[in-house]
Amino acid sequence: MTKKNRRSFAISVLACAAFVAAAIWSWDLPVADVLAYLALLLGFLLVIIAAAFGFGALLSWLRGRKK
Questions:
Q1: How far from chain centre, in Å, is Cα 66?
Q2: What is the count of structural domains for the chain?
Q3: Domain range holding 15?
Q4: Which residue ranges of the chain lie beneath pLDDT 70?
């Protein structure tokens, strides 16, 4: 990864954090709601990763079985 890509990734993460902080501060969004949405997002992400890993293992097993 080049230095420019790392910098733009860091700026994107900071912009996202600033937007969430602005939502909490200006719209009186409860921090508990933000944490609940974060937990839900991480849960869905783990399900997607597990499904991808499972399908990858299944494809690998099917390819190895045909030889």
A1: 35
A2: 1
A3: 3-65
A4: 1-4, 66-67
